[in-house]
């Protein structure tokens, strides 16, 4: 199985963004962009303006993770800025999930949802068939560099089994501590998209091309062992 690799842009060096983006354009499958409002999580990172600024400079799929209290306040801006996937947290849309899904689709975008570690798959059971991607948080949301939560492996396997049994089309994406210590477990559980950040990519080498090669070597070893 070929895994999609999605670097997290909040972990890249903003001083070297032009050079690093040129490397990612050659090597990545998609780009992960975190939008935080300072309320849903106590952090503020990137914004719709950031999406608008990089959209002309990359042909890659832009996957936007919305860590915000009120996703409908941001969806139009994110869509118009050039996002391809728009992914709110399931916990923030439970009261109007179908309306939110339809709103994202009305902009011609793909729909994802994100599940926090303590949120079960059953939480999205009534609209899971409508989703293009499901992201499993393997750390609590809000900050980079947190420790992996191994209990999430069961959730990944649960989504893999549901997809196979029901013929669902969603991608299974992992967000949080995707690195050499966890690749084998994640691949064995059924992960399809790996979001790589500080520990998985950017801290492996100051030269991003060399860091990418090191990451691929780690993934190959994990794939052989999985």
TrEMBL record:
It catalyses: D-allulose 6-phosphate = keto-D-fructose 6-phosphate. Its EC number is 5.1.3.-. This is D-allulose-6-phosphate 3-epimerase. Its cofactor is Fe(2+); Zn(2+); Mn(2+); a divalent metal cation. Homodimer. The lineage of its organism: Bacteria, Pseudomonadati, Pseudomonadota, Gammaproteobacteria, Enterobacterales. NCBIfam families: PRK05581.1-4, PRK09722.1. Catalyzes the reversible epimerization of D-allulose 6-phosphate to D-fructose 6-phosphate. Can also catalyze with lower efficiency the reversible epimerization of D-ribulose 5-phosphate to D-xylulose 5-phosphate. Keywords: Carbohydrate metabolism, Iron, Isomerase, Manganese, Metal-binding, Zinc. The keyword Lipoprotein does not apply. Substrate binds at residues 65, 142-145, 175-177, 197-199. The active site is at residues 34, 175. Belongs to the ribulose-phosphate 3-epimerase family. AlsE subfamily. It is an enzyme of class 5 (isomerase). Pfam families: Ribul_P_3_epim. Pathway: Carbohydrate degradation; D-allose degradation. It comes from the Bacteria. PROSITE patterns: RIBUL_P_3_EPIMER_1, RIBUL_P_3_EPIMER_2. One of its GO terms (biological process) is carbohydrate derivative metabolic process. PANTHER family: RIBULOSE-5-PHOSPHATE-3-EPIMERASE (PTHR11749).
């Amino acid at each position: 199985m070929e895994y999609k690799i999605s670097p997290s842009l909040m972990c890249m060096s903003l001083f070297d963004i032009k050079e690093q983006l040129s490397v990612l354009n050659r090597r990545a499958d998609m780009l992960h962009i975190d939008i935080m409002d300072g309320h849903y999580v106590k952090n503020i990172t990137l914004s719709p303006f950031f999406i608008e600024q990089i959209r002309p400079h990359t042909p890659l799929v832009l996957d936007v993770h919305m860590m915000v209290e009120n996703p409908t306040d941001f969806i139009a801006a994110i869509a118009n800025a050039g996002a391809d996937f728009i992914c709110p947290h399931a916990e923030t849309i439970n009261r109007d999930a179908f309306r939110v899904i339809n709103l994202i689709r009305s902009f011609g975008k793909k729909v994802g949802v994100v599940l926090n570690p303590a949120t079960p798959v059953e939480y999205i059971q009534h609209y899971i068939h409508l989703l293009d991607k499901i992201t499993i948080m393997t750390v609590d949301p809000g900050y980079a560099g947190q420790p992996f939560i191994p209990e999430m492996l069961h959730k990944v396997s649960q989504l893999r089994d549901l997809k196979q049994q029901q013929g669902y089309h969603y991608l299974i994406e992992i967000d949080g501590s995707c690195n050499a210590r966890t690749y084998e477990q994640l691949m064995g559980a059924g992960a399809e998209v790996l979001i790589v950040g500080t520990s998985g990519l950017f801290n492996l080498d100051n030269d991003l091309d060399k860091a990418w090669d090191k990451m691929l070597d780690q993934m190959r070893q994990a794939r052989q062992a999985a």
